[in-house]
C-alpha cells in the first residue's frame, strides 16, 4: 500500500474544504491556535512513517489523553468497571444529566465524568500521578520531548466549571474518593499534554499492536486491555458522534477539543490528524473527513 501517495491525495483534496467549524474557546488558551493548521501522520506496524502538513507541530491533545489515563489505570490492575460503565452516552462529552439517574456511575471512561473517575483511580494508586502519566506517554511514544502545557492547564482550571460540577456531584453520590481539587488538578494537566500527530501516532501503536511498544516490542499493557480499550474507542470515542465516526471512518478512534483525532487499524497502523476547527459535537470536522478519505482510498477499515 502506498500510504504516502494516499496521504498526498487527501491533503490535495481537502485544500479547498470549506470548514464551518469553530476553534474551542471555552478553554480560552485554545482560542489562540491558528485555525488553518492541518497535519496528518500515519505510523505503520512495519515502522513506516507517512505524513503531510503540520504533522510535527505540537497541539493540545485534550480528551485524547483519556485513552492514556485509562491504559495506565488498566496497567496498574485497577478495578474500574464497577465505577465506570462501557456504554455509549449519546450525550455531549461534558453532560451532567445521566449521572443523577445512574447513581454517579458515568456511562464510559471517555466522557468527562468517566475520565474524572479514572483520574480519581490514578490519584489513589500512583505515587506521583502527573509524573507517572507523563512518563507512561513518553515511554509508549518512545519520545521524551512530550510535556504538559502549563498555560493550557491553568486556563482550563480557571474556566472548568462543568468539570468542577461533575466531580463534586460524583463525590456527593459516593463515586469519588480523593480530594476534588487533587483530581481536577491531575485531570486539567492530563488534558494539557502537548503532542504532534507524529508522536500521537507512535504512542497509539500500543493499541494497534496488542500492547507492544513500537521498536522495543516491550508490552506496555496486556493484549486483553487493548481489546477492551479499542472497543470503547469504537463505541464511545466521539461521544454523541460515535455512530457517525464508525459509519464514515470504520476505525476505533479518539478526538480532543484541541482538534486532534487518533485512530488505529489493528495490526496495521495508527494515524493522527489535526485541524483545530470543531463541529458542534466538539470533533474536528476536517480531521474526520481526512480519516474518512483514508479508509475509503485504502479500501480498508475494520468492517
Ligand atoms: O474537560 C474538557 O472539557 C476538556 N479538557 C477536554 C474535552 C475534550 O477534548 C472533548 N473532546 N472532543
TrEMBL record:
<dbReference type="InterPro" id="IPR015868">
    <property type="entry name" value="Glutaminase"/>
</dbReference>
<dbReference type="InterPro" id="IPR012338">
    <property type="entry name" value="Beta-lactam/transpept-like"/>
</dbReference>
<comment type="similarity">
    <text>Belongs to the glutaminase family.</text>
</comment>
<feature type="binding site">
    <location>
        <position position="156"/>
    </location>
    <ligand>
        <name>substrate</name>
    </ligand>
</feature>
<dbReference type="GO" id="GO:0006537">
    <property type="term" value="P:glutamate biosynthetic process"/>
</dbReference>
<feature type="binding site">
    <location>
        <position position="163"/>
    </location>
    <ligand>
        <name>substrate</name>
    </ligand>
</feature>
<feature type="binding site">
    <location>
        <position position="257"/>
    </location>
    <ligand>
        <name>substrate</name>
    </ligand>
</feature>
<feature type="binding site">
    <location>
        <position position="112"/>
    </location>
    <ligand>
        <name>substrate</name>
    </ligand>
</feature>
<comment type="subunit">
    <text>Homotetramer.</text>
</comment>
<protein>
    <recommendedName>
        <fullName>Glutaminase</fullName>
        <ecNumber>3.5.1.2</ecNumber>
    </recommendedName>
</protein>
<keyword id="KW-0378">Hydrolase</keyword>
<dbReference type="Pfam" id="PF04960">
    <property type="entry name" value="Glutaminase"/>
</dbReference>
<keyword id="KW-0007">Acetylation</keyword>
<dbReference type="GO" id="GO:0006543">
    <property type="term" value="P:L-glutamine catabolic process"/>
</dbReference>
<feature type="binding site">
    <location>
        <position position="187"/>
    </location>
    <ligand>
        <name>substrate</name>
    </ligand>
</feature>
<dbReference type="GO" id="GO:0004359">
    <property type="term" value="F:glutaminase activity"/>
</dbReference>
<feature type="binding site">
    <location>
        <position position="63"/>
    </location>
    <ligand>
        <name>substrate</name>
    </ligand>
</feature>
<feature type="binding site">
    <location>
        <position position="239"/>
    </location>
    <ligand>
        <name>substrate</name>
    </ligand>
</feature>
Amino acid at each position: 500500500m502506498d500510504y504516502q501517495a494516499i496521504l498526498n491525495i487527501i491533503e490535495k483534496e481537502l485544500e479547498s474544504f470549506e470548514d464551518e467549524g469553530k476553534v474551542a474557546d471555552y478553554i480560552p488558551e485554545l482560542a489562540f491556535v491558528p485555525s488553518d493548521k492541518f497535519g496528518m501522520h500515519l505510523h505503520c506496524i512495519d515502522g513506516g512513517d507517512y505524513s503531510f502538513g503540520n504533522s510535527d507541530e505540537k497541539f493540545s491533545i485534550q480528551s485524547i489523553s483519556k485513552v492514556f489515563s485509562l491504559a495506565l489505570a488498566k496497567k496498574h490492575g485497577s478495578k474500574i468497571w464497577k465505577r465506570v460503565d462501557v456504554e455509549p452516552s449519546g450525550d455531549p462529552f461534558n453532560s451532567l444529566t445521566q449521572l443523577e439517574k445512574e447513581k454517579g456511575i458515568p456511562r464510559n471512561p471517555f466522557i468527562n465524568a468517566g475520565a474524572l473517575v479514572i483520574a480519581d483511580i490514578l490519584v489513589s494508586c500512583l505515587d506521583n500521578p502527573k509524573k507517572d502519566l507523563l512518563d507512561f506517554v513518553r515511554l509508549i511514544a518512545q519520545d521524551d520531548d512530550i510535556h504538559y502545557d502549563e498555560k493550557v492547564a491553568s486556563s482550563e482550571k480557571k474556566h472548568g466549571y462543568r468539570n468542577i460540577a461533575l466531580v463534586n456531584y460524583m463525590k456527593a453520590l459516593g463515586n469519588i474518593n480523593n480530594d476534588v481539587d487533587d483530581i481536577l488538578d491531575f485531570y486539567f494537566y492530563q488534558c494539557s499534554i502537548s503532542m504532534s500527530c507524529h508522536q500521537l501516532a507512535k504512542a497509539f501503536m500500543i493499541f494497534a499492536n496488542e500492547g507492544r511498544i513500537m521498536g522495543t516490542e516491550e508490552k506496555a499493557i496486556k493484549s486483553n486491555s487493548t481489546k477492551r480499550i479499542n472497543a470503547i474507542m469504537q463505541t464511545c470515542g466521539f461521544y454523541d458522534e460515535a455512530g457517525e465516526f464508525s459509519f464514515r471512518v470504520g476505525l476505533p478512534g479518539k478526538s480532543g477539543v484541541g482538534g486532534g483525532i487518533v485512530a488505529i487499524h489493528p495490526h496495521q497502523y495508527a494515524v493522527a490528524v489535526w485541524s483545530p476547527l470543531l463541529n458542534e459535537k466538539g470533533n474536528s470536522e476536517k480531521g474526520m473527513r481526512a480519516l474518512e478519505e483514508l479508509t475509503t482510498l485504502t479500501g480498508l477499515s475494520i468492517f
